[in-house]
TrEMBL record:
Highest taxon in the source lineage: Eukaryota
Source lineage: Eukaryota, Viridiplantae, Streptophyta, Embryophyta, Tracheophyta
Organism from which the protein derives: Camelina sativa (False flax)
The name this protein goes by in its record: Aspartic proteinase oryzasin-1-like
Signal peptide: 1-23
Classification via SUPFAM superfamilies: Acid proteases
Coiled-coil residue spans: none
Family: Belongs to the peptidase A1 family.
UniProt keyword terms in alphabetical order: Aspartyl protease, Hydrolase, Protease, Signal
Gene: LOC104720201
Keyword Cell inner membrane: no
Residue intervals of the Peptidase A1 domain: 54-343
């Protein structure tokens, strides 16, 4: 299964299966380092899995029980494995009996949640009690669960997402959060999520903002260039959304094939240094993704493109290759109007 299908289907299937079975903190920075995880009131250390999924530590309950979660803009629920998880226990497990602030809520649970020093009270979440199958990929993943940062309309449990709870409870200085994903594991700079502001050290120039629509926060892009060549794709506009839980850039099969044919990647990586940038036009401005972001080096002298076509798609998903190239801001200042801004990462 390709990486997009693996993680997005994993999340969707797990949500379906699970349904069956104080003072203002100001600006909170959550470090996404690629080293060992750490936890304190000022931030959350992060690491990346072999699939380049960025995840980090949160705490649930009183006293806090620690979990590693994927921060995912493509979903809205928070879920972690339950203490009632049967058989082999591959992850950290939430045990409600150990928390003095736990409240039952049908098939859901309510408790305090700490994210980067922000303590959110009475947060609903899901306790995962099993996987859809004994061979489910989640059993081998290094993270425990998922913290969705998406729209409430994406919620299959009809609960208030963690991010919306932060805003509602007045925990942040500004109703924005920003994401910066680092590139180099050796540098120790995995990335950073900032709740309540941005970190100017991680971008250059001004952000270009677009007003998004619908439950997936979609917007329009135009004209895709490979190098200096106009592919004539999306010249009339293409629907697109940004997703931090997707490892690739996804699009309709024919369009992606055209882009990959123009890139002309050699499977043995010999022409890696000669590959062109791929440029997307958003709000009349150019946003270029370089080969260091859209090429995956899975093994020595073996490369694959992160441009992935899926049959039946009529929209685009700008996943981690785009988020690595551009520091991304989600602005809820005038909510329900939501804007997303992009500036070149540094």
């Amino acid at each position: 299964m390709n990486s997009h299908n693996f993680f997005r289907v994993l999340i969707a299937a797990f949500h379906l299966f699970l349904l069956q079975s104080y003072a203002v903190q100001g600006i909170i920075r959550i470090a996404l380092t690629m080293g060992n995880t750490s936890f304190n009131k000022n931030g959350v250390g992060m690491t990346t899995s072999k699939q380049d999924i960025y995840f980090g530590e949160i705490a649930i309950g009183t006293p806090g029980q620690r979990f590693t979660v994927l921060f995912d803009t493509g979903s809205s629920e928070l879920w972690v494995p339950s203490g009632k998880w049967p058989g082999k226990k591959p992850h950290n497990l939430y045990v409600s009996q150990k928390s003095s602030t736990y409240k039952p809520n049908g098939f859901l649970s309510i408790d305090t949640v700490n994210v980067g020093g922000i303590t959110i009270t009475d947060q609903s979440f899901t306790e995962a009690r099993s996987t859809p199958s004994k061979k489910d990929p989640l059993l081998e993943e290094t993270f425990d669960g998922i913290l969705g940062l998406g729209s409430p309309q994406l919620s299959s449990t009809k609960t208030v997402p963690v991010w919306y709870s932060m805003m509602k409870q007045g925990k942040i200085e500004k109703n924005i959060f920003s994401i910066w994903l680092g590139r180099s594991e050796s540098s120790g700079a995995g990335g950073e999520i900032v709740f309540g502001g941005t970190n100017p050290a991680h971008y250059t120039g001004q952000h270009t903002y677009v007003t998004v629509k619908g439950r997936r926060h979609s917007f329009q892009m135009n004209n895709i260039f490979v190098g200096k060549a106009d592919t004539k794709r999306c010249s009339r506009g293409c629907k697109v959304f940004v997703d931090s839980g997707t490892t690739n850039i996804i699009g309709p099969t024919a369009m992606i094939k055209d882009i990959n044919d123009r890139i002309k990647l050699s499977p043995d990586c010999k022409n890696l240094k000669k590959l062109p940038d791929v440029t997307f036009t958003i709000d009349g401005k150019s946003f270029s993704v370089s080969p260091r972001d859209y090429i995956r080096g899975e093994k020595p002298k073996e490369c694959t493109s992160r441009f992935e076509g899926i049959d039946g798609f009529n929209y685009w998903v700008l996943g981690m290759p785009f988020l690595r190239a551009f520091q991304t801001v989600y602005d809820y200042t005038d909510e329900p109007i939501v804007k997303i801004g992009f500036a070149k990462s540094v």
